[in-house]
Amino acid sequence: QVQLVESGGGLVQAGGSLRLSCVASGSIFTIVAMGWYRQAPGKERELVATINAGGGLNYADSVKGRFTISRDNAKNTVYLQMNSLKPEDTAVYYCNSYLYTDSRTWDTYWGQGTQVTVSS
């Protein structure tokens, strides 16, 4: 079993900052990639940012220049630094990981989500 646990969400005013964290634990052999997705009410879940084992980065156009994804491989942790937040960033943010388990299977896992609310 693998668990992803997010933290760091909350309520912030427009222009403010938040930092999300996600820790992966359990039967992990190696993590290939980790990332963040978000889902606003009435909308589909969308990619925010991803980072692979080699450090390759991918961002949604809507967050480029404002959000920064990073990871600590030793701690199986991924972070999302969110600056210059806008009301349209309001959503539930989900951590995602594609990894190779101790059972020698390739699987994708999701966290339970953390709410980010940006007031205008």
Spatial gap, N to C terminus: 40 Å
**Globular, elongated, flat, extended or rod-shaped: what is the shape?**
elongated
Q: SSE string, helix = H, strand = E?
A: EEEEEEEEEEE
Number of helices: 0
Task: Give the overall average pLDDT.
Answer: 96
Count the strands? 11
Major beta sheet, specifics? 7 strands, mixed
Query: Beta-strand percentage?
Result: over 45%
Which structural class fits the helix and strand makeup?
A: mainly beta
Whole-angstrom Rg: 14 Å
Poorly predicted regions are none
Helix percent reads: under 10%
Question: What features would you describe in this structure?
Answer:
The protein has 120 residues and is mainly β. Helix content is 0%, strand content 62%. The protein has strands at residues 2-7, 10-13, 18-26, 28-39, 46-52, 57-59, 67-72, 77-82, 91-101, 106-110, 114-119. A hairpin with a 4-residue loop joins strand 5 and strand 6 (57-59). The mean pLDDT is 96.
Please supply descriptive tags for the structure shown above.
single chain, 120 residues, mainly beta, seven-stranded mixed beta sheet
